[in-house]
Specification:
mainly alpha; two-stranded antiparallel ribbon
């Protein structure tokens, strides 16, 4: 009743928000500081080797079996390397609605959201723990409110009914116009870092 992994992906973000926040609080309680360099180094060591191995295998596979798509997939590889796959897919219209497209690295969007969270959240928690260490339950309630607000804004922005899967000047219902480009709203909400922050903040609030 929830196809496409919608519920599973959201649960993944909630758990991630919870675990990373718990790790940061635990480190601060032990050492009275958060070692950002060590935190980021641990995250990169956990993620980068598997990611780059996947990219290399995919590159070889495409070169051998789908050489005609090498130019088309260059942006996918760059997005994967720099952890911006979600924003690249939004920009070029590679949302989940465009299922007929050849996008072998489509799944990297969630890893991009995750890594962007890893980059930003330790900085936020450093400030929170320095200023409100003794008021964490109140901070948790505020984060819960942020999660609810993000969810509500996402629900308001979501476009029901028939929308353009490939937005253009002729049919652009459910699209934002950004300069001379049309961006699918629902794909942006599904893939976007800000809309996905609702699950992450819910986990952090716990």
């Amino acid at each position: 009743w929830l196809p496409g992994g919608y519920l599973g992906v959201e649960v993944f973000f909630v758990i991630s928000g919870y675990l990373i926040t718990l790790l940061l609080i635990g480190e601060y309680e032990r050492t009275k500081r958060i070692d950002l360099r060590q935190f980021w180094t641990r995250r990169f060591r956990r993620l980068l080797p598997a990611l780059y191995l996947t990219l290399m295998i995919a590159a070889v596979y495409i070169a051998v079996f789908y050489s005609v798509t090498r130019e088309e997939t260059r942006g996918d590889f760059l997005g994967g390397i720099f952890y911006v796959s979600n924003w690249y897919q939004i920009f070029v219209g590679q949302g989940y609605a465009s299922s007929e497209a050849f996008v072998p690295l489509r799944h990297l969007w969630s890893l991009a959201v995750e890594e962007q969270f890893y980059l930003i959240w330790p900085l936020v928690m450093t400030v929170v723990l320095r200023r409100a260490r003794n008021r964490l339950p109140a901070v948790g309630l505020k984060l819960f409110g942020v999660a609810i607000a993000i969810t509500a804004i996402t629900a308001v922005l979501f476009v029901n009914g028939p929308v353009a899967t490939a937005c253009n000047a002729e049919f652009h219902r459910g699209c934002w116009s950004v300069g001379d480009r049309y961006i699918n709203i629902n794909d942006s909400l599904y893939l976007g870092t800000f809309s996905r922050a609702g699950g992450l903040m819910l986990g952090a609030a716990e």
